[in-house]
Every structure is written in structure tokens, then in C-alpha cells.
Amino acid sequence: MTDIRSNIKYLLSQIPPQVKLVAVSKTKPVADILVAYNAGQRIFGENRVQELLKKKDLLPSDIEWHLIGHLQTNKVKLIVPFVSMIQSVDSFRLLKTINDEARKTGRTVNCLLQLHIAKEETKFGFSIQEVTEMLRDSSVRTLESIKICGVMGMATFTDDKDMVRAEFRYLADCFRKLKTDYFPGNADFKEISMGMSGDFAIAISEGSTMVRIGSLIFGERN
Ligand SMILES: *Cc1c(COP(=O)(O)O)cnc(C)c1O
Predict the structure, then answer these.
(1) Which one of 7, 212, 213, 221 would you pick to mutate in the ligand 1 pocket, going by the greatest count of ligand atoms within 8 A of its CB?
(2) Which of 17, 75, 114, 190 lies most in the core, judged by the most C-beta atoms within 10 Å?
(3) pTM of the entire structure?
């Protein structure tokens, strides 16, 4: 049996205190999330909107929900009223939609820009060129109901640790470059969300501020 409470305790002993732990609960039942909650965990990540909506109504309202999966613009309005962070922003159109829905509800929504850092073709995300183009354009500065809090990325799914390290290093380099060029003195732009169950230690050694961990907490997914 998976001992969710001990898994969290163990992970917290491995993660420096300034690095945030996002417990990735996708596909896992509400009962498992409650065990983690009762162990003190407050930040949870889900990748599907419908699943997130179903779960959040059954769980304590002080949970900070992070959306970590690809988001379609037509689903933005469903999560904007309560979501704590959208980590998977991968287009200006999506950012603008989040902003417009957030303004309607009187909220400011925290966002991360997802960068494509892996070799795999299928993973979503901006290239650094695309992010740069977006941030250069003045229209991004008119979005007053979103906060751009940093970047997110996923490394290639591989046993090649050097490759994973190089990809995380690249993401951290991108973060520093974006910080210098577009967010100097902006205290909100501070997060580098990288590292999952198989690679979180490498991610932390490359400067991660936020790790997203599922199977090491809740057990393997089917
Ligand atoms: C599923 C998922 C994770 C967690 O993966 P594990 O290997 O189970 O830790 C992290 N980030 C994203 C974007 C995911 O979809």
C-alpha cells in the first residue's frame, strides 16, 4: 500500500524549504488527496479541467489548485474563479483569455509561461523565441488581471541524466534572461517550475523553485 503521508514527509526532507512542492494528484481519488491534505500538503496539481472541477468541490477550500496540463481557451472561464496558478500557459491568446475572464471575476490569476525544453515533439510550450516575441509586444503589458510569475518546463522522458540536466539548465538560463530583459525589479517573476518524480533532484540542483510530483507521493498511475 502507498503510504502517502510518509511519502510527503520523505519528500519534504529531500527538498530545500524554499522549493515549493506541488502534489500532482491527476487520476487519483479524492480520498488520497485528503490524506495528503491532512499531512499538511496544500498545493495540488491537476492536468484536466473536468477532473479538477469535480475534485475541488469535494475538498477543503484552502487547497491551492495549480493547473499543469494543456488548457483550451474555451475552458478557461471554468477554472479562473478559483485556481491559484495556471502553469501551462503556452500562447498569447490563452494568456489574454485568462486575463479577460479574471477581470470579469475581479481576480488576478498567477500564470507561468510553459517553455518547450524537451526533445519530444508532443510536449506543449513556447520556444524562447516565441516568448521573447510575446513579451516584446506591448499588448502583453495591457493584461492587468494576470501575473506572470515565471516559467515551467518538462524534461525529456529519458534515463540520460546529462540530457535532463542540460534541459533544466537551459530552462533556468531562459528564466534569468527573461528576468533581466523583461521583468527587472518585478518580484512576481520568480518561479522556475521544473522537476517531477524521476528528476526532481536534478531540477533542484539546477535552480528549481517548484517541483511537481505525482507518483512518488500517490504511487504509480494506471
Ligand atoms: C503528471 C505530471 C507531473 C508529475 O509526474 P510524476 O512523474 O508522477 O511525478 C508533473 N508535471 C506535469 C506537467 C505532469 O503532467
Answers:
(1) 212
(2) 114
(3) 0.97
